[in-house]
Amino acid sequence: MSLTFARQDAESIPLHVIPSENLDAIPAEARAWADANGFDGSLGQTLAVPGNDGAIAFALVGYGTAKARARGRFQVSAAARTLPVATYHIAAGLSGLALEETVLGWLLASYSFDRYVAPAKPVARLKAPEGVDAARLEVIAAGEALTRDLINTPTADMGPGDLEAATRNLADQHGAAVNVIAGEDLLTQNFPMIHTVGRAVGPDPHRAPRLIDMTWGDAGPTLTLVGKGVCFDTGGLNIKPGASMGLMKKDMGGSATVLGLAHMIMGLKLPLRLRVLIPAVENSIDGTAFRPQDILTSRKGLTVEINNTDAEGRLVLADALALADETTPDLVISMATLTGAARVAVGPDISPYFTDTPKFAQALENVANDVADPVWRLPFHEPYEAMIEPGIADLDNAPKGGFAGTITAALFLRRFVQSPYMHFDVYGWNPAAAPARPKGGVGMGARAILAALPAMLDL
After folding, report:
1. Is-catalytic flag, 136?
2. Which of 17, 50, 193, 456 has the most Cβ atoms closer than 10 angstroms to its Cβ?
3. What is the domain partition of the chain in residue ranges?
4. Which parts of the sequence belong to the Cytosol aminopeptidase domain (predicted)?
C-alpha cells in the first residue's frame, strides 16, 4: 500500500478526464476506439487507448454530468483500481478544487487493510500535477490511513494498551510527548468516570482503562482534541444484542480520528500548540461493572445518574473534557462515535457537529465542501437541557423518551467545558465500498477541521 505520488521523473501515461457533455474532448485519434468500446464519459468509466505498438498510449476516464458529480465524492479516483496498473499523469480535463479532490482521492483509493490477509494487488499510480501541494496531500492521506487502520483493527489487537502504543508511535514520529494515567491511578488522580467505565476488564494491565495525554508544539494558539477511545463496547450490564455489538471495535473511532488529525497537524507543522486526550477503555462485564441507577461523581464534581450503561462514551469524555478545560485552551474539539441518533439524522456519510461559536461554524462551512468532507451543524438547543437533569443527580447519562439523542448527548458534554468548544458525533465506518473509501473504518470531519483551523485560530 503506497499512499504517495509517483516520482516526477517516472515514465507516465497521459490521462484525459472527459465529461459526458463534451465528448469532443476525446483526442481525435481515439474517438473511433472510444465509440467501438462504448465510452460515453459516464462518471468513473475508464478506457485504455492503445498505440500502434499495442502499449497504452493514453487513457480516458469519464467525468459524467454535473448532476452525477454532485451525488458523490472522489468518483474519478475510482480509476486507480480500474485502469491497468501503470503510472499516469492528468493531461487534461481537471483544474482547481476538482483536480485536488481527484488526486487526493487517488491516494486514498490506494488504501487497503491487509494486516490479516495477503497484501492487496497494486493499483495504478499517479504523478502529482503541477500546482498541487503534493507533500500536503500525502500527509493528509497518511493521517486518513492511520485512522482507518486503527478502526479496522479488531479489539484483540486494539485494546487500551494498543491504542496507547499507537499514540506513542505517532508521538515518536513527530517529537511529541506522551503521559498516561492508567488503572487505579485514575482514581488517585481524579478521573473517576474513566475508571468506572473501564474497570470490569479483569486483571490484565494491558486492558486497564487509561487516559492518554499527548502534547506537541511550544508556540501559537492552543488546540485540544479529545477522542472517545472505547475500544470495545458490550453495552455493559445493559448488554447490546449481538447485531448491535458486531461493529463495536469501531467505538474508538473518535480517538482514531483525532490521532489521524493530529498526524496532519504535526506533519504540516501548523503553528499551534496541540494536545490530544484519549480516555481509552473497554466497556466490559464482570462483577465489578457499574450498574444502572448508580450515581457517579465526575472529575468536575458534577454527579451523573446512570440510566443506561451503554451510554458510556459521554462518561469517559466528560472526565477528559474537564481536564482539557482546566488549561483554558483556545479551542477544544471532541470527536466520538457517540449516538445512533446521529446516524438516523444524517446517515453514515456526514459529520454532525455542535458549536456555540459562529466563527467556528462559518470557518467549517466555508471549506468542508471544498475538501470533500461534508459536515452539518446541529444545535445546542437550550430547552432540552431539562431532559438531562434527573433531579436525583446533576445529570442523566441516558434520558428517557428517545427524542433528540444526539443533541442531549452534546448538551451533556458541554456541561464539562467552559472554553470555546466544538463536538463532532462521527460514525467512523463506511458501510459500503465507494470511490477512495473502501468498506470499513473511515475518517470523518478531520480534513474539514484541518482546512478550517487557520480561520478558527487565526493562524
Report:
1. no
2. 193
3. 13-126, 138-457
4. 308-315
